[in-house]
């Protein structure tokens, strides 16, 4: 066990989790968006907040940007601001859902002019990548239909394939196009990329720089997500995670909040495939918003939840597990997994953090820091950021 | 069959479906609300639009109001406007989800002052009922929590029971309190009235004037809704329907759009229990919005879908059905039901409408009427109605 | 924390979990029943196996029987055998699904003769209760239909109500009728008691001796089970649990295997309502079978899983939780719950067991005991027990 | 419309639906298998029953066989029997779920000897194909695990890929390997081919003779099945359907019984892709059993349901649909689809059948034929066929 513990500490020291800029703005449901004191008014303040999460956790050194919400005149200046705060710019996320033109689709729209507009938007995003040093273009396609017959399912796939080719052609060699799937919402009958199979088919058609993004909240009920993780790793096409959680609907709860055992099982497949290493090409990102809880602590808790699930996965005694599996010892193999899951890894993570000069409990340290009160006092006036800015 | 047809015509002639005022305003998802030309700017225009649906279908003589979205200075004037347009005011819907105070609950809030505010809001709604002649106070409780531990499940039930008692005490003798349940949204871990059992328990505690509202889109996947209809009818507590449909998430698609067979099975239980008669106490209401389709035609189509499902249910040969059921003839009993479902009832409904001086196909007649173009031209300026006005 | 720990130890020392006799027989799916060496050949051997589980865990002093699978000539002798082995007879379970007469229903059958037979079967079960000292008659009603129209939903409810009245009338004063609900299976369109609301309505109609059984595997996907627990406790009608777990289908996996966090949340509601006490009237039973894993270790693991979830629930700092809840501290309240969940309670339970003269780890102790090998050697010949014997 | 009607008649005249031999044997749930009078005792009688369905419907000229349930000494004789009865042998189905060796997997088993046995079983099936003239080897892989950790997800994929390669290598040039996926059951944590993506990946690795089988009952709740149909058609890998239906669990209800609108939407994608033509390579098969309803009438009803859904799909006015889709007319496009769905196609099918010298209503004609009574009288003695023979 000593050895496992040491290996776990080493692996955890290298783990990084990317934060979404939009997690720091206001968010909500179709019924209500609640606002909170201290919410950022611009991309610079969002990055500052993300940097606070990194300062307390030591594990969140990158920030995903969203275009156009995070558009600034000078992206060089934004990247420098990030560097000054100790973080860097991560994936660039395009927005295909807030324009009136996209009512019936963006990259899939029957109107070539709308498709061209959606492609051009990605060219703009790639420019932001070049200006900020980002390497990942993340596409979540919100296209779909609400009624049977509304549009032709197959035509939409063909248009999508063509639009994606045009975007892909714009990438630089070091760039990746990472393509997300989602089971439902904001359309309710079809989604044009509803499952991992569809995302993968498009990635295979595009080429080596295209990878699948798995958002933990984007599956049908009771889908075995760790199976998909294992499958995508097996064929070398798991590009990134969007971590969050969900009981039934919505997908913006704190990762691990709804089913911590599932998160552990997912991280177990990552560790089993040796894909935790930064060079494995899997980008571990959060994609969640905070409707009713404070944002910075919400992100800190999320980072900690991923770390705890990872720590448990690292503590699985793989020799014991393998032995039990090979001998058909169902309960013994399950027990080998559960022994790790049932371990309280908070002391291990506290040890790691203290060795890094970080607070043992980032959540409590932040609460005691006075930072929340400070930004609530300072950030008066202006327009709080939200979905739309 | 002649007899069944005649009875069906007679029953269909008395069927009424209540329209929600908010169906005529803009609506959308948390991602985007699309606006449309011609959308009403105030409650008077909403009622006018509802009256158009009634003029074309002859089956939609009432309009549900929403407080505060439909607040006007003079409700007597609004009721008179409705009467002038040929419709009347139906259920009054309270709003417990758009106030910052309700972030952690309304009727269930731990803070007595917030609960008192929510109760007072219902007193206001009851005043609107008196001013408009409405008899139904409809409560959809959007309260709930997002995270395990966030609040105490049982305390919230006790507070809810107490708040409902206070509201109930304000009702006049001819009034009803109709109480809706919803599986999820806008909260994602618990909803305080998530299922028919919880709604019923509160109604039983309140008294005879409290009834359950069944919203067809508010159940876990694969729930047998017609079973619940039959059960609530059996114990005399089905107060109303909120009709709409849903594939997986959201609950605002046109009723019958996702699963017309389910709608038929629901109406079959209504007919079987002889609960179609207006005096049965079941109020058949639509509760849906139109995100991407035009609103008046959307409502016309919805009314037609309910009529078609009802017509099919009325055509079930109940003697043949009963005989097959009693003899254990599984396929024969199923066939008796399916014979009615597979019947094309559009000619029957055309006959009914023409006998009433209505267009045989209200949807096409409306499209040809020029009304949509007219309101698009006339309703320029002002603020289009939506969720919030 | 010291205090919580001490209270937890005291509460855990009184917790008992009832085992099902059928868990020790062979079980499987409709596709295949695998047999295992050492499986009991008769009710006496099943009770002996259950007693082994109790000897290793100290927490499983009762065995549920199933009629007719556990029919013996002399139930007094069986009860004495149990007593000799250190256990007692728990709930008596009726069987309404294995007789050809029940193809279209048992207590709900359209044929009065079949209903009378099903009622008479329960009279027989009550006789077994008298002969064995059991106080709980457990009814799981497998009745339902496969096709729309197959039978009349409401007629079946009326027949069920009448049949249950007849059974209830046979109970002795100290007896309880505990009534289970199930979402689906073995019928696939309707189940006659599909949800807690239906079970509760029948219990309310029957009287004070009728209580609801909540089987953790019998709900629609994503149903919030702990909410139902809290609601049934609130109205004093939670009679018993059938513990097991389920990912999507079937409901026979080891309790806590699919979602240990859910099991913790359920036990948290139990502890919160002070319903762990034996005198609370909630009978904690396992109802699961072991398709591919060995049976005695499977039951030991199940008991341990319930104990661990209970221990965690007992460690919740309810003052901290309440304070955070009252102040709207969403993350703080969630953290208070998660702090307990994330605690490794195995040392606490080891301490408890050792103080009781039990092995610290019953699962490993059993594996090392040689008992499995012994019964595999001894139980040669005869017919292994399964569903049907 | 005349033209559409004529085209529909022509297309319907060429449509064929393959019947499963096992539909004529007894089947049930894990709780109970009910037996029926007149059930076949051997493969010859099963084929005779299938031929009866064909004689009454004219649309079911092939019978799928199951190995080993349909093993006979002389397959040439069985094929001749089929020919004499007017039908032919369709797909050969392997069985990987009824052998004790397969408890922990067949083609995925960790033990090479078990995998070799499972591969050898397919070689035997391919021999049956040669002996009967069958061209499709259908593999439903029931492998999976019940508990997290029980076996290594990825290792199982690798073993599966290798085993499938060995089977594929045995195919003759005109043969196809058609590979089914299933969401859950008979294992409940992982299934080794749980979704279309996994099946497709293995088919792509195997080669051009490997195709995906879509079983309509094998998806997570609310999965959009017609999307998958469209996607598989788009990439040329939809090899066959297994038709049946399901409300929540099990997957053996009569096709179209649970959601006839879904069946229509599926057939609409088939017609839209011009894949109804026999030469399209899509084999339309039933895969269902009849637990409580009589088998021959159950199969007749199933064939009729597929025909009706197909007829409706053929009546979609595709020009009107396309026009509405292209102009963003959501309700108009939906209406174009629904107009076809709402049409009563029973007269059209009656006309077709009568033009073919068949009864207008095969279900009623069979009921009146006396055949059911005849086989009930004749088939006395022997062992009724079921799962296992």
From TrEMBL, chains A, B, C, D:
The keyword Ribonucleoprotein does not apply. SUPFAM superfamilies: Xylose isomerase-like (SSF51658). InterPro entries: L-rhamnose_isomerase, Rhamnose_iso-rel, Rhamnose_isomerase, Xyl_isomerase-like_sf. Its EC number is 5.3.1.14. Keywords: Cytoplasm, Isomerase, Manganese, Metal-binding, Rhamnose metabolism. GO terms for molecular function: L-rhamnose isomerase activity; manganese ion binding. PANTHER family: L-RHAMNOSE ISOMERASE (PTHR30268:SF0). One of its GO terms (biological process) is L-lyxose metabolic process. It holds the Pfam family RhaA. The lineage of its organism: Bacteria, Bacillati, Actinomycetota, Actinomycetes, Geodermatophilales. This is L-rhamnose isomerase. The keyword Manganese applies. It comes from the Bacteria. It is an enzyme of class 5 (isomerase).
């Amino acid at each position: 066990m000593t050895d496992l513990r040491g290996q776990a500490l080493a692996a955890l020291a290298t783990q990084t989790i990317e934060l979404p800029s939009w997690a720091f703005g206001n968010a909500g449901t179709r019924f209500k968006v609640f606002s909170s004191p201290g919410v950022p008014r611009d991309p610079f303040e969002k990055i500052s907040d993300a940097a606070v999460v990194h300062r307390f956790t030591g594990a969140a050194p990158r920030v995903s940007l969203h275009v156009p919400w995070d558009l600034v005149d000078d992206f060089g200046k934004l990247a420098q601001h990030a560097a000054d705060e100790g973080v860097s710019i991560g994936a660039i996320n395009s927005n295909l859902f807030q324009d009136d033109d996209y009512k019936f689709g963006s990259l899939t729209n029957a109107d070539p002019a709308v498709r061209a507009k959606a492609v051009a938007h990605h060219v703009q995003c790639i420019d932001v990548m070049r200006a900020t040093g980002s390497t990942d273009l993340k596409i979540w396609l919100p296209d779909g239909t609400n009624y049977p017959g509304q549009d032709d399912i197959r035509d939409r796939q063909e248009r999508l394939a063509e639009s994606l080719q045009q975007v892909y052609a714009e990438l630089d060699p070091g760039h990746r196009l990472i393509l997300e799937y989602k089971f439902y919402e904001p359309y309710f009958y079809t989604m044009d990329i509803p499952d991992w199979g569809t995302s993968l088919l498009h990635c295979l058609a595009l080429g080596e720089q295209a990878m699948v993004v798995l958002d933990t909240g984007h599956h049908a009920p009771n889908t075995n997500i760790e199976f998909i993780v294992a499958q995508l790793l097996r064929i070398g096409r798991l590009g990134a995670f969007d971590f969050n959680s969900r009981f039934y609907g919505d997908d913006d709860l704190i990762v691990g909040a709804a089913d911590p055992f599932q998160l552990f099982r997912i991280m177990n497949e990552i560790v089993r495939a040796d894909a935790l290493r930064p060079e494995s090409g899997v980008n571990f990102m959060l994609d969640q918003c905070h409707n009713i809880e404070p944002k910075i602590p919400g992100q800190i808790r999320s980072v900690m939840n991923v770390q705890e699930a990872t720590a448990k996965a690292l503590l699985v005694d793989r020799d014991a597990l393998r032995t039990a599996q090979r001998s058909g010892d169902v309960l013994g193999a399950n027990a080998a997994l559960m022994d790790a899951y049932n371990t309280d890894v908070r002391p291990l993570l506290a040890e790691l953090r203290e060795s890094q000069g970080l607070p043992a409990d980032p959540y409590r340290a932040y609460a005691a820091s006075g930072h929340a009160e400070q930004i609530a006092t300072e950030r008066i006036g202006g327009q709080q950021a939200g979905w739309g800015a």
